[in-house]
Design goal:
Blueprint (H helix, E strand, L loop, with lengths): L3 H24 L8 E5 L10 E5 H8 L4 E4 L9 E7 L2 E6 L4 H6 L7
Antiparallel strand pairs: 1-2, 3-5, 4-5
Bound molecules: zinc ion (ZN).
Amino acid sequence: MASPRNERIAKNENAFRQLNESIENSVQRRRTDDDLGGFVCECGDEDCEDIVRLPLATYEEIRRDSRLFFTVPGHEMPEAEDVVRRGEGYHVVRKHVDVAEITDAGDPREPS
Ligand SMILES: [Zn+2]
């Protein structure tokens, strides 16, 4: 069972992911996969407004797994997620399984 804090973190990250999906829809039309997109940091801090730049192809890879999110390096929250990849200017984190229900339900790519 997830702690209330970890649930809140997961819900914040879901909200940022939703926002990034609309950002991606607007930039991808005229770009190739190697181009960097500017996305919002998907960390659990609801006040974070940092921008993460990552290749659109990497963004797509992350989005294929409903438990993966990306953050500015150092914004990850070890009690709620593990860093699974360190890129240039971004970290990819995998949410702990205790909040999988929240991140799965909030996945914009999954038909609900
Ligand atoms: Zn952040």
